[in-house]
Amino acid sequence: MHMNRFFAFLALLMVTGCVSEPVQQTNWFSEYGTLETGTPIQMQYGSPDMQPGDPSDNLIGAPVHRMAVMLPLSGNAASTGQSIRTSIEAAVLQNAPMNLSVAFYDTSSNITDAINTVLSDNPEVIIGPVFSSDVRALRNAKPEDLPVLSFTSDAASIGDGVMTMALMPTNGVEAIVKEMSLDGIKGFIILAPDTLSGKLMAGAAVEASEIYNVPTKGIFYYKEKNSESIKNTTIAASMNAARTAANTRAREILSDILVSERLTALEKSSLTLQLERMSKLETIGSLPYDAVLFLGNGDDAESLASFLRYYGVSSKEAKFYGTALWEGSDIANDFTMIGAKYAALPDTAPEFVNLYERISNSKPNHLSGFGYDAANMAMGMIYSPKTDAAYLLDPSGYAGVEGLYRLKPTGENERALNIVQLAGNGTTEIVREANKNFLTPIYNIEQTKVKPANAMDLETPGINPNDYISIPQRLQSKYKSKTYGAHITRAPITQPQQVESIVILPEDDSDPVITSPDFQPITLESVDRSYIDSIEIEE
Hints:
Helix content is 32%, strand content 14%. By secondary structure, the protein is α/β, with parallel strands linked by helices. The longest helix has 21 residues, at 240-260. The model is unreliable at 1-25 and 488-539 (pLDDT under 50).
């Protein structure tokens, strides 16, 4: 097992026989809820909150405190592990007393061996691992009172002293559904990847929709990066089949009346104009929702949005919303997505960005920032007079380089998020800034209690073509239509029995009956579909 002792002088201390103090016995739920919420603890370097409490900690021979770091330092995920390691080393160099020993353990080969080696060294806190399976294995093997600051977003892998620094999916989902409520959205559909993660996020969205009174009107799943699956999903979500059939039936009714019935000039003119207008459309019928929530990444969201517009869901009919998964994609460069909103982490603190770039000659990512905050938090816990639980689970939270956050005894965390809007030309603008404290609760959903959501057909009364055309009242009973729709929530109109046709003469002698054999209604040709995103935006 590869293990790298951090700082040569600390290795010397261990050779002299100094040992760490025993780990405090901790009940992760015992003190939670009894502490007052106040000003967040500043976790950035140079903060008074990060200074060791005892000057003797910097003296040779002081008792050694041990911090273990478990990361993938080789193999396919080595770049991820090394970026977090760089951040942890930076934090330790800035803030660690001399009697802190930091050891790095590679988790890329055999996680069981790595865990056994780590636990045999009796650390006071563990930072990492990254992957959920590794985190779960560590949770099952370690003493419950040993704190772990991991980087998984899998709620099933945390708890029993294992916490996570990663952004929990429910935070972004709840934040954006709350924004929908503030935007006055009446109902929305969910488009999510057909994965366990996608279904859990959809479950969180359904819970949030109940909390913020924004009804969920349908849930659709697609296979990631699969254009055929994405296309079929949008066909169903757009009600394209029903809206197309309703348009065709409306044109048939208008055409039949123009050919078969005695009409006044005014009636003929009105019906002809309606038929011309309908023939320029591919679909008719309003949608049972006015927003779409994309729970996949930015690339899939772009494809889904493009197909939705192709199948008749314009930006006028439905607003688009997303989550932090859009970050890092090219979605901000897609001019057809202008106006879409999503939840995002605040910008990483510039002081940390500059520090990281000086050390590594590269830019940090959010995981790098999580690692930096985790190291500072672990050191703060080790040297704090508080119990581990009282320090780590402080309800006031922490102001780190990735913004405001706090940990919970279940292992979850809450991170304050910005609401960002796509502004075009690769730019975004913050329309709602992240909270600065937890004096007012930000979230209501518990990630560990979220259940996967099943697919859900659209809740819609369907589309009746007669609702979108105007025909003479005397003909309405003769030219009724069935209702088209995927999930009809009202009783459909039954087709009337055929009755003998009654000829009604024109009421005005100046409006002759159409008898010319040259009269032909407008042909019900198919409209040539094309991408009309640019036209919609110009309108």
